[in-house]
Batch of 4 targets.
Target 1
Amino acid sequence: MNTKLTLRLDDKLIASAKRHSAESGKSVSQLVSDFFALIDAEDSDVDITPRVRSLRGVLAGSGLDESDYRRHLEEKYR
């Protein structure tokens, strides 16, 4: 279930978030959601290896999304 959340942020920070949103192709809501998920993952009992941690964010700005990954899998397993 999705619930609306209101945030009060500095105007410059909002402008920066909107710019990043446009560049990444994700909504500001999705960016915030991804960030909260990251925090949750860091707080969980799951150990992330240093190698995996070093890969975090390497595809940022690449324009790839989940549909690209699904398309890749569909082609790979035909």
Target 2
Amino acid sequence: MGVGLSAISILVYQGGITLLAGSLPSALNEAMITEMTATGGLIIIGIGLKLLDLKDLPLANFVPAIGIAPTILALIPVFRGLF
């Protein structure tokens, strides 16, 4: 019974993510996707360092950078015109 009810919330949550991801390709260019991929790669390196007990990094603090990196790229032309 509990698994069936949790399936509804997972369907809504993952369905929302899928719909959002489907609308993003029109808003993101290749450079923005590259920056998001690079940021995610650094987070994966941090996970590896944490799993190996080499360094304890606050990885949850890095997650917003995935959205901030393409935003900075979108704002570069705006600021380039000012200076």
Target 3
Amino acid sequence: MNKNNLIIILIIIIFDFIFSQFFLLDFLNKEKEQIYKEIAENRIHNSEYRYGFKKNATFNTLWKKKIVYEINTNNLGFRDFSNRNLNKKKNYSIIIGDSFVEGVGLTYDNTITGLLNSKLTNEQFSNFEFLNAGVASYSSYIYLKKIKSVLNANKWLKVSSVVVLHDKSDLLDDLAYLKMNKPSEFEIEDRKYENRRKHSFYEDLKNYNFWRFYRKQTMIGLLLDNIGNRIEDFFRNLRDRYKLASKNNKNFFEIKKYQIRAIRSVNSMKGTKKFYYNKKKWNDEGIKSLNFTIENLLELKNYLNARNIKLYVLLYPYSYELLEDTPRLLYLNSVIPKLEENNINYLNAYPKFFIGDLYKNIDNFYIYNDVHYNELGNLLLTDIIFNEIYKREN
């Protein structure tokens, strides 16, 4: 390459950098940065249960940096179909959990509580409804703290039952609260919005991560990054097709598209999956965290019993558990005996997901490349909750 070509390339790089920084990137990222600003203002800290949503708010939020969904909250700070004050004459059932209950990536109507309420007739809904107390990354310690906080602060709230959706990641999250010595209260931090691209601009330079800097801060870099992702995606598809063909003793070309899609969901949340495969980690931390989880659920049960409120715990599968026995059996064989030993009512959603073609079930019931449920997956859970709780209580 001669000197003139090098100069031309250098000019293109400099021009691309200047034009990207002062014009294009801010324009392209304007909508996403506005969403990050809304997140900082509306996902707020709480001294009693660490964090939640701002009350009577409407804001957009992101899942996996690309799926935009709207959240409306009521006067309790729960996700709802609109901003509203709850009817003090109604009876309620509170559904609490983490991102599965919040309904990441979904409209409210497709969340568990949205679907549960859609099963009620107009007459039934005038007297009773389900409430969504879930927020991403909650765990059993926060379920306990939040339910107690909400009920203690709102004596008018008439609740007949609380349903806890126990997530596999709860055991990992609860470890943090154990290490914090079960904090009785949390520091309220002011979440300030910061432009993410500009923040990474300085961080990448400070850490000498020049290739990442170029990919994120220039249009040519973004284009190369996109091309690289597409190439990586192509070869990942070939790899997954080959593995599926070998595993199922089939021809490479017999593998269906939905099976490839299913594998993408199965391969997400690898960190949580490893926790249930590592026997040493399970023996050192898993059992300790499980005992803490049961301790929290038992305290919640006793608190609710004193108020004549029933507690139910719903167990449900991640996508990888449909194909991998080891993490599923370790989880169920550890959790269920503990629940039964402490007389904690539980509902088991696992059998619903094992009817028919497991790969097709994963593709049908889970968000692509994710462990969270889509509308159809949530419908399976709502059928269990509605039939086992609402119909029996009413």
Target 4
Amino acid sequence: MDNLIIAQSPSSPAIAADWNAGVISMRGDSYPENSFELFQPLIDWVEAYLAKAGRPLHLELELVYLNTSSIRSMMDIFDQMEVAHKKGQTVSARWSYDAANERVGQLAEEFCEDCTFPFSIDVKS
């Protein structure tokens, strides 16, 4: 399978999924006009990776703002990771955010509470 690169725009995050390293990184704001169109290739990539790679998957997030539809897409990704974790696959996530952005910190905490796989939150000052 190939790597996935989605360029950052003013309303969407930079997304990089590295098949060999088993790492997905997402950075920036996420309020695209059509979040399904933006996130579906990543959701498909995660599904394929978890089904075929046989290696750990780590998600690195530095998201600044997410609209409601982006949150729903993130939930889909976390749900896939949760299912994989319950099957014994190694998955993890780390969400880093600026301490001044309390809203995204609360969102990260809410996601973390719903996940049983390793999920860390780092506050940058």
